[in-house]
């Protein structure tokens, strides 16, 4: 496994700031959750009052997530293995992403993953959904491997290769993206066919896409879990209804899964830490049901 030669503090600062704003944004598996019902969902995603760090992050992300970059990122992903390790080892690696300068939380990355999984578990959701909550942010390991900064790891995702939706956060910042002026990429369907399905479009590269491509052929998780992993940051779609002209019937099922998962990611954060070592035996047993001892990253 490669040595870590980047500090995670800068990434975590941006990621936590985005998560903080997203918390201001607002079943067993297919029914209304008791956990969600107890949460205040009156004021969601207040980007107008977000800190300048979040606004600057999205400006950079929207300017740099081009078709050319996304093709390159996928080619680079397929070109080599970055590490070989198990899920819990990956969680411990991700746990170096602790922001000592964040005044709002002292929680580690492992604690966020465990809090998400525990909220799902306490709501009586199936084991596959619990383990999905446990691993959903492991794609942030991309920051240590191939990322060019923070803009290709965290933040809301969106479709590239067609016109950028005005339902994206800060849509005006796409003015700095050269694809905005491309004769094909700037059209409604761009390089895609109507209702071709999200499997056939490029979602902006980041921790969701990276983790999806890592685990999809190395686990026995159901399709709903893979959708939760791949699209949990795709807020323009699962919250705002954007890009529906590209979706198909399969995506309707994925949408239900992502909407069922999303509240656990957003609302599970709390100041009280979890006991990782106490919970570890339960979750390692759960991991073994769906994953081999080691995965290629």
From TrEMBL:
Q: Where in the cell is it found?
A: Cytoplasm
Q: Where does Fe cation bind?
A: 112, 136-137, 207, 232, 265
Instruction: State the needed cofactors, names only.
Output: Fe cation
One GO cellular component term noted in the UniProt record for this chain: cytoplasm
Question: Would the keyword Iron turn up in this protein's UniProt record?
Answer: yes
Its pathway?
Polyol metabolism; myo-inositol degradation into D-glucuronate; D-glucuronate from myo-inositol: step 1/1
Question: Which reaction is recorded as catalysed by this protein?
Answer: myo-inositol + O2 = D-glucuronate + H2O + H(+)
Q: What is its EC number?
A: 1.13.99.1
- Gene Ontology biological process terms from the UniProt entry: inositol catabolic process
Q: Which GO terms describe its molecular function?
A: inositol oxygenase activity; iron ion binding
Q: Which Gene3D superfamilies match?
A: Hypothetical protein af1432
- Report keywords, A-Z: Cytoplasm, Iron, Metal-binding, Oxidoreductase
The residues listed in the UniProt record as binding substrate, with positions renumbered to this chain, are 45, 99-101, 140, 155-156, 232-233
Q: How is the cofactor bound?
A: Binds 2 iron ions per subunit.
- Can you tell me which family this protein belongs to? Belongs to the myo-inositol oxygenase family.
Q: What is this protein called?
A: Inositol oxygenase
Look up and give the organism this protein is from: Boletus reticuloceps
């Amino acid at each position: 496994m490669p040595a870590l030669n980047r500090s995670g503090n800068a990434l975590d600062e941006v990621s936590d700031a985005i998560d903080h704003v997203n918390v201001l944004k607002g079943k067993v598996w297919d029914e209304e959750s008791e956990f969600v019902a107890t949460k205040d969902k009156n004021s969601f995603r207040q980007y107008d009052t977000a800190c300048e760090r979040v606004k600057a992050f999205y400006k950079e992300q929207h300017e740099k997530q081009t078709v050319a970059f996304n093709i390159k990122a996928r080619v680079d992903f397929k070109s080599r293995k970055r590490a070989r390790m198990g899920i819990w080892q990956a969680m411990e690696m991700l746990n170096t992403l602790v922001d000592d300068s964040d005044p709002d939380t002292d929680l580690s990355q492992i604690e966020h993953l465990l809090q998400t999984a525990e909220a799902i578990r306490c709501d009586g959701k199936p084991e596959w959904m619990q383990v999905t909550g446990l691993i959903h942010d492991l794609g942030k390991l991309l920051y240590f491997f191939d990322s060019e900064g923070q803009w290709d790891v965290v933040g809301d995702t969106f479709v590239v290769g067609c016109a950028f939706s005005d339902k994206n956060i800060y849509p005006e910042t796409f003015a700095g993206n050269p694809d905005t002026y491309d004769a094909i990429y700037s059209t409604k369907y761009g390089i895609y066919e109507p209702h071709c399905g999200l499997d056939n479009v490029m979602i902006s590269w980041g921790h969701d896409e990276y983790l999806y491509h890592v685990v999809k052929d190395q686990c026995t998780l159901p399709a709903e879990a893979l959708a939760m992993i791949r699209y949990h940051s795709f807020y323009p779609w699962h919250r705002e209804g954007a890009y529906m002209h590209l979706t198909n019937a399969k995506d309707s099922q994925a949408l239900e899964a992502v909407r069922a998962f999303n509240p656990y990611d957003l609302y599970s954060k709390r100041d009280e830490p979890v006991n990782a070592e106490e919970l570890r035996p339960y979750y390692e047993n759960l991991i073994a049901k769906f994953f081999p001892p080691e995965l290629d990253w």
